[in-house]
């Protein structure tokens, strides 16, 4: 697989898009990873290049005929072009530029066609040593085609057909009765290997989706979908490391819902969970782009805000007091009204742990609660 920091662009042409078509419900992250897999597994690529060039060279040397030297030249041209595109694509992917995926796909098809062409020429040459070597080589390529191109099973199927299909045509032209058995064998073989490619693709996509979901669950609160405590601490640490490079310090807003316990006790956990989900929605809508919203337990939330001065922070805190304090319509026709208290603390550039910064905001929160709730307090102010 390609490096994690590389992103290979999706194909743009209608034909190539069809070849790599992926189910609509597959996330873009996985789509790009599957496209990236077409550029990966370089050991298989190198093995295929070496095999096809050696076979073409040996048969051309053995038969000494112009068409086989032309086939060898075609193999060399395609292999050089593929290597050039692969190297260029790797550099461009790291730089975040277009990777010419369409050309890479067409060159892969051209390589499969060249393998099939050599097989056809060898079978019809009348030299059965050359025919056996070419057929063995093309059949050996199928496993690599399936494994290397599992991200695009349609493309893999077409490559297998291009590599092996000419065997059937060669059998007809050669008029060798025993060799006509390939007319039965090869369609079954092509169909089974193409089917295997589709099954491998389905298994890989399912695995990638499962890993993606597990990673999401590890970082997010299961009820609200907000970041969890571990993710918040990681974000605070990252903000502290960036602190020296920014003019305005990031800040934490530590929120605790006033009156939530009474609603939860009176109407049950179902209404309580519904209330927490609605609070999370209002928070997301209230914060500016780029702010990180997290639920760190119970009815406690934290917002990590960057790039806003004291006036902007106060304005956001005031907006949250109003938005969260508006009435809620819960399951079963229950209407609830709660409030919120907010503690605010700056995130220093260094010298403290993420936990220490969180505790500073927590102390500011309790100062706000001690002064009557439904208000905010900034750490370090009277």
UniProtKB/TrEMBL annotation:
Where would I find the GGDEF domain in this sequence? 248-381
Q: Which keywords, in A-to-Z order, does the entry hold?
A: Membrane, Transmembrane, Transmembrane helix
* Keyword Transmembrane helix attributed: yes
List all membrane-crossing ranges: 38-62, 68-89, 101-123, 129-148, 155-174
| Stored CDD domains | GGDEF
Q: Which domain of life is it from?
A: Bacteria
- Keyword ATP-binding on this protein? no
Gene3D superfamilies the UniProt entry points to: 3.30.70.270
Q: What InterPro entries does the annotation carry? A: DGC-Regulatory_Protein, GGDEF_dom, Nucleotide_cyclase, Rev_trsase/Diguanyl_cyclase
Mind telling me which NCBIfam families this protein's record contains?
GGDEF (TIGR00254)
PANTHER family cross-referenced by the UniProt entry? DIGUANYLATE CYCLASE DGCT-RELATED (PTHR46663), GGDEF DOMAIN-CONTAINING PROTEIN (PTHR46663:SF2)
Q: What is this protein called?
A: GGDEF domain-containing protein
Q: What organism, scientifically named, is this protein from?
A: Cupriavidus malaysiensis
